[in-house]
């Protein structure tokens, strides 16, 4: 069970990083459907960097840069050129799928060493909990800190109040003198960097290899997580661990020889996503009360 819990935290970290990035986007009113493609491009960028340099830190930075660049392109299109946010995001996702497959052809057979883990002194020696909670990559703990920091940002800081204002009423924020489009672009780029970090973590730390389409729908699950968590960072984190646990459970059941068809077990994470979205959709008034009012809407200062 300790190994299952440890694997759940690792799997949840990928989803949490991507979902927190998408949360940054949606809090200012921008829907990003390109997370899957961004994560794929970041995954190959991170893996290739580690394969050539041996530095996991550079690999994670390369993934963040790849995600930020693609997010910047998305932001320029939807914020300044007013293209449809949903269609542009889908196009970005398809682009990332094809581009990463093309660039990554030569890396399919390559392997890299596992990333170093951060073992917390004394705590790592606690029976059961030591291996489950205190022997992970530093980014696992960094993701928890990030979720808490974002909660403070939105609830306690002036900057968070401005970001929420841009997401709720960009017209009012503009009337108060805030550069709405620039703020949106900055949040989209920052969110893309987090999605890129998630992709790079996946290919260099979580499963240190590259294979075509290895993100396997995690970008879409991360997108669903923002609604599941009603746009609250800590709930995003808990939801990511929940979905990560479902993913690890199906692998655990396969390893123990459970008499369940493997195809059904592979469906579990996506089935859980659909069930959660159906349950949430039963109360549209609750969704509207928590969703940023300008989500998906373009804004022009003129």
From TrEMBL:
Pfam families: BPD_transp_2 (PF02653). InterPro entries: ABC_transp_permease. One of its GO terms (cellular component) is plasma membrane. It comes from the Bacteria. It is a multi-pass membrane protein. The chain crosses the membrane at residues 28-51, 58-80, 86-108, 138-155, 183-207, 263-281. The keyword Mitochondrion does not apply. PANTHER family: ABC TRANSPORTER PERMEASE PROTEIN, SUGAR ABC TRANSPORTER INTEGRAL MEMBRANE PROTEIN-RELATED. This is Nucleoside ABC transporter membrane protein.
């Amino acid at each position: 069970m300790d190994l299952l819990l440890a694997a759940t935290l690792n799997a949840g970290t990928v989803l949490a990083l991507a979902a927190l990035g998408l949360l940054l986007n949606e809090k200012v009113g921008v829907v990003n459907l390109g997370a899957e493609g961004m994560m794929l491009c970041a995954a190959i960028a991170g893996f290739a960097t580690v394969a050539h340099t041996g530095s996991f830190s550079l690999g994670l930075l390369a993934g963040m840069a790849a995600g930020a660049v693609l997010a910047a392109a998305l932001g320029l299109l939807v914020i300044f050129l007013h293209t449809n946010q949903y269609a542009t995001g889908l196009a970005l996702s398809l682009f990332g799928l094809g581009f990463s497959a093309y660039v990554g052809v030569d890396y399919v057979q390559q392997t890299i060493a596992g990333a170093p883990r951060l073992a917390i002194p004394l705590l790592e020696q606690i029976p059961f909990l030591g291996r489950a909670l205190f022997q992970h990559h530093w980014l696992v703990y960094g993701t928890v800190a990030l979720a808490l920091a974002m909660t403070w940002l939105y609830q306690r800081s002036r900057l968070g109040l401005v970001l929420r204002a841009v997401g709720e009423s960009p017209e009012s924020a503009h009337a108060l003198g805030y550069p709405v489009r620039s703020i949106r672009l900055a949040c989209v780029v920052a969110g893309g960097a987090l999605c890129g970090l998630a992709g790079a973590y996946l290919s260099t730390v979580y499963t240190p290899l590259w294979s075509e389409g290895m993100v396997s729908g995690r970008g879409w699950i991360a997108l669903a997580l923002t609604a599941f968590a009603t746009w609250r960072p800590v709930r995003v984190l808990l939801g990511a661990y929940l979905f990560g646990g479902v993913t690890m459970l199906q692998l655990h059941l396969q390893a123990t020889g459970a008499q369940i068809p493997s195809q059904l077990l592979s469906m579990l994470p996506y089935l859980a996503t659909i069930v959660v979205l159906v349950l949430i959709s039963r109360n549209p008034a609750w969704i509207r009360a928590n969703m940023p009012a300008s989500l998906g809407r373009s804004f022009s200062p003129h």
